[in-house]
Amino acid sequence: MPTGIVGEFLDLKAETDADVLAMQCGDFYEFFADDAELVADELDLTVSQKSSHGSSYPMAGVPLSELTPYVKALVERGYRVAVADQYETDDGHAREITRVVTPGTLLETADDDARYLAAIVREDDGTDGPYGLALADVTTGRFLVTEVDDESDLRAELYRFDPAEVLPGPRVRNDDRLLGAVREDLSGSVSLFDAEAFAPGRATHAVREQFGRETADSVGIDSDLALRAAGATLGYVEETGAGVLASMTRLTAYGDGDHVDVDATTQRNLELTETMRGDGEGSLFETVDHTVTAAGGRLLREWLTRPRRDRARLDRRLDAVEALASAALARDRLRETLGDAYDLERLAARATSGSAGARELLSVRDTLALVPEMVDAVEGTALAESPVAAVLEDLDRERARALHGELADALADDPPKAKTQGGLLRKGYDDDLDELIASHEEATEWLDTLAEREKRQYGLSHVTVDRNKTDGYYVQVGKSVADQVPEHYREIKTLKNSKRFVTDELAEREREVLRLEEARGELEYELFEELRERVAADAELLQDVGRVVAEVDALASLATHAAGNDWTRPELTDERRLDVEAGRHPVVERTTDFVPNDLRLDDERGFLIVTGPNMSGKSTYMRQAALIQLLAQAGSFVPARAAEVGLVDGIYTRVGALDELAQGRSTFMVEMQELSNILHSATADSLVILDEVGRGTATYDGISIAWAATEYLHNEVRARTLFATHYHELTALADHLPRVANVHVAVDERDGEVTFLRTVRDGPTNRSYGVHVADLAGVPKPVVGRADEVLDRLREEKAIEAKGSRGGGEGAGSDGTGDGTGSGEGTKQVVFDLSSGSFAGEGDAGSAGADAPDTGGNRNGRGSASTAGGAGGAGGEAGRAGETAETAETDRIDPEIRAVIEELSDVDVAATAPVELLARVQEWQERLDGDR
């Protein structure tokens, strides 16, 4: 077992569950054994060897003053780092672990984004919810708690806040599926914490100790689960030694009724903070973010990801944006002032943790000085009567002025980085300190003038007086005159061209200077710590000023974008409507010559079926509707000529899906799970965006699901809905469901050339133009040409030869004729029946006519809505199949096929529900496939 420093290191490491230990050894923090090799690999440090008890151990170290960036780098890579500091004892010195830095308790962040620590608690009955959730940002002191109903809501909140570290409670930590989903959704880490910290009694006590006994009741927290999560979070912050509990001055509760439900899927689909590729550029936030402060950017991001449902609050926010948008000069002056502000919320946390240096306190001083400038920028302008002025009135200006004055009187303008170096404070701040400074200056003046005195007194040349760590103060004389020095000079070192000497008086003066320096440093740092504690005591004031700066900055950012991009103020209403005139997509309009479109959703027209070709703009049209709704409920102007927006309680989207095979979920399964979430979560006050449903399975399966989902959303949920589909059969629903209407993206087709007009018009489209899109995508010309041929024959219900299907020989042309000279058995002519998804009408090349036997059905998959009730032409299939059964060909038909035809003949289309009819068709298809 190693002894000495290595043994002490390993003993301390055994006391903690941290991944890495940094132990102070004099002026360095050292890592030993496996920890040394880990940090060397991660941070490119040099590894040496340390001998202990006959063994050799890897060792790596960093200077005392440089530990922070190394710890930050390790923590940002997911490691928990324990720090053991050295302290003096009667027997010398000892070391103890003073803090553990984790991803959720790291104060020194690399960016301006919020950095949340989250705790999750669930009841012990094993059900899916409810869940208690606490979210603490140790860098700003913000503390939020809520209770959510189920796992879907929990994942939405976690995705929205994206915590750096998650603490699962006792029940949650054993839920491998949920933790797997959390790890999948988030970039942060999952850490286990003492289960007792989540116990109701202990957690409630922690909350009361931190925020006051009555705080939970006064802020409306009636959830024991939320309190348990909050208490565990406080316990974790305290145990890790982050030292920021004093900055957590407010406990904020929020619930379902406060914000619009925007689940994780919708946040991704609408690209609120990052694109589908994971980039910030091209997101909604990046588009509208013109903030000039870190806190303003964080708040604006929160507004976009957590839209509000409080109309009065939103109207005040819109009033402020309108005032700022119309007062360009005042807005510019205000933003210029804000541009000099530092992040007071984070500075407050640094002060309370004891990690703030003199430069951080200078930043506090300089930002507090901006408060009167902000007020001046508003007074006497058009903003004076706006909510912007009201925001500033919430500040305690007198307290801000007093703290600013104290810092201005105390701090030197250019303090050193080292806290104990001296020069942190101004002269005149403390009498005792001034006396020490005067004595120190007198002593150093004697030393500064010593060289000149020695030259004059002893006639020496080339004399200098200097100081270093090895020799202390010394007199240095050139070798050419070194033999002329007086007898009281004692030589201490010979150099190439000079010699160094000391004298008794110089040594005494050195001791005096060192004593004064030490006394000055100790007193000055003691005074500085008192000043920092004074700032920490005003952490709540700093947070208030910081929040005001953030709010004004976020409002000015929205106003700047609105004024520069011709956005308009939405008219909020309590009616269930979304009426947009000349709406645009807020992101796409920046990079394209955008074609605006109108949109109307209300009680009479609440469900729009959107059809049109791929790449024509359907998805953009629907996303812009959702984004206009979201922007309005974020308190922003919107990209439109005019907009009347009824408030919603949730925005739900289902837009495409990628395979998640690693999680055992295919594209279609993901699609169905997203659809299920929408059907369970949306209400009559929600906005639903469906961009294709049922495309990941067989045609009739897909149509059936899409049809049934449409009926359910229309009849049961009654949410305002836009549904884009290539199932043209669904457009018939507009004739049967009162709130359903058809719109389509217009196409101009002339002389075989197709132009997407990007204009949305009423009514359904009549084609999908898929072959044209394939051509635009660069599909080889032979494929595109062949697809055109097949499509034409399908429309005309004519035979299609499957080229090369029997040996690859060349045979009949597209008209069904040919010489049959190909190799093998020749080309086989068939009719591909879309209704059954299979080939029918078999015959050798040359034996079939241009029109193969009609097995029934409209080949393009559409039937008469009046006959089939919108069921995809099933009525036409039944009619023609009955005629076929009466022909002379009957005897040659397979018995199973004949049975299906007979059942078709017996179907009463008018009396059969569409979904049931489609199910019957699918059953017949499966029987026919099985017969083959």
The number of distinct β-strands equals: 30
The biggest beta sheet is recorded as: 7 strands, mixed
- Estimate percent helicity: 40-55%
User: Over the alpha carbons, how many angstroms does the gyration radius reach?
Assistant: 38 Å
Quaternary class: single chain
Strand order of the largest sheet: 13-23-24-25-21-26-27
Average pLDDT: 84
User: What's the shape?
Assistant: elongated
- Gap from first CA to last CA: 76 Å
Proportion of strand residues: 15-25%
Task: Determine the number of helices (DSSP H or I, runs of at least 4 residues).
Answer: 31
Uncertain spans: 658-664, 805-829, 841-890
- Secondary structural class: alpha/beta
What does this structure look like?
It contains 31 helices and 30 strands. A seven-stranded mixed beta sheet has the order 13-23-24-25-21-26-27, with helices on both faces. The chain has a six-stranded mixed beta sheet with strand order 3-4-2-1-5-6, with helices on both faces. The chain has a six-stranded mixed beta sheet with strand order 11-10-7-8-9-12. The longest helix is centred in the middle third of the chain and has 34 residues, at about 505-535. The chain is elongated.
Features:
42% helix; 7-stranded mixed sheet; 31 helices; alpha/beta; 6-stranded mixed sheet; 932 residues; single chain
Summarize the model shown:
With 932 residues, the protein is α/β, with parallel strands linked by helices. The protein is built from 31 helices and 30 strands.
